[in-house]
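This part of the workshop introduces the protein records we will be handling. Getting from the letters to the tokens is the skill we practise here. The record below serves as our worked example for the rest of this section.

…
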Amino acid sequence: MLRFDLITLLELLNIHNAFGNGTLSTIRYLYNAGAKVFLISNWGRSGDPAVLSVEAVAGHLSSLLQLKVVAAKTVPCYMEIKSEKFHKADILLFENLTLFREELANCPAFSEKLASGASIFVNDAFFLSHKILASTVGVTRFCYARLAGFHFEDQLLQLKQIRERTMQPYLAIIGGGKFLEKAAALLRLASICDGLIFVGMLAFQVMHVSGISVPSCFLEHDAFGEAADLIELVNSRKIPIYFPTDLLCVNDNNSELFEIFSSERLLPGWTPIDLGPMALKEINNFLSVCKKVLWIGPVKFASSVNGAVGASDLGRMLEIICKNGCDLTVVGNAACQTVLAAKISVSQCKMFENASVVWDFLKGKTLPGVAALDRAYPYEIDWATIYENPTQPLVVDIGSGNGLFPLKMAKKWKDLNFLGLEINNKLVMHCHDVMLNCNRKNVHFISTNATCTFRSIVSTYPGELFLVSIQCPNPDFNREGHRWRMVQRALVEAIIDLLAVDAKVFLQSDIEAVTIRMKEQFIKYGKGRIVKDEDEEDKVWLPENPFGVRSDWEQHVVDRGDFMYRMMLRKVGNP
């Protein structure tokens, strides 16, 4: 199943084929790999008679792809997919998701229906990744693998580059309004950029905090504290913060009457609508020395009025610095349209028409559409700085809790490296504190959802994977079909793929059904590559912990006199 953004796809194709081709390449790749592809998307507004039919969209996609796309006037349903009408179709486009209220509500039943018949989910709708939708988040719990498409991954990489200070000076041009809503993002920009230029309503908030008299109607009175925090950070970093020195204003009583005013002497009866000539000249001076520029938000002080040309002038300035090798990122529909009108080649800059995704990213928010994918692990791991000898065999404890098991194991076996993967960040921070106190160089902990990230983390390790332990997972989360179930097909396949031959998997729980279900998942998805260890083939359960090291919960269970259901599995070389 491929979730794509039809509106963005068509817009990008109109701008430049190379951009739109990201999603088209994803579809062709899946098709050429032999997959049956279900396409889902949204377009237009519900009830709008001008909205294209699913048949018309399928025809358009067929023309773009040079492949037959069959329209299905329904959402995916396993029985309908198996029907004779659709059985032979390789690419199916399903009904417009705009028509279904369950999509916006992330309805579980609707999500399950969407995912019916699909085993792998691919998300290529990056500009929707800040939303929680049934088609981008809900469906992921019903597909065993959840991946990013080519367009999605390319946009995510470009987004991350906004936070990088690889080229300096790095300047941010910030337009638009709603200071309070964007305060966290503005602080982030102030911490990474070498200067901030405000070209919209946000400028008045900065001017007010800087001691300049500003008409009350232009201010957010509940954002004074946040604006003061921004000024304090800028001053502590000793970087410039700029607001327009003059503004083009329109008379409130005569929309054909314009006047240039100093930003410090705005008169009643006049409304700012654009940057003044002195402000544009000063901005040009700033830009002329920049190596990297982010423009986010429109040059807008009030409703668009004839005579406003500041954005166009800014676009021409950016065209010049782009030709001189400046790294330019443009965010927001208005800014992108201005850049395109200035004839700046899309190969010379990065463009994000949906500003909401970028603002949420800069605020430090988790993007739900990104977090729902398997390949969401965001860090490069330098194993040489983590372990004294990164070539030693690796033992991974999934769901390491307070770290007692990996820490004691690391003390006992110094010729092995130990890695604890734990979803609770507070427990991981505790483990790091313990590591510092004991000064061990063969144990480490990472805060992550190992079910999704095991492969991307462990596959980069330079040594061999010697042992994986899964001990006492939460029984409430390990019921069949539960969204947060730890032992799922994707995790099992990743573990078996990465294990060395004859390496082992240790499973245990104080609840018999949990251990049995974990074993069944490994046997089912191991496809003959994982078997019960030959040393215990005649035993139902291991009577004792084979390592002589107990986790905290195992110790608790033993102390109360209850039984632990343990077993050891082994990877075989030739099924």
Q: What stands out?
A: The chain is about 40% helix and 20% strand. The mean pLDDT is 86. The two ends are 31 Å apart (CA to CA). The first strand starts at residue 2 and ends at 3.
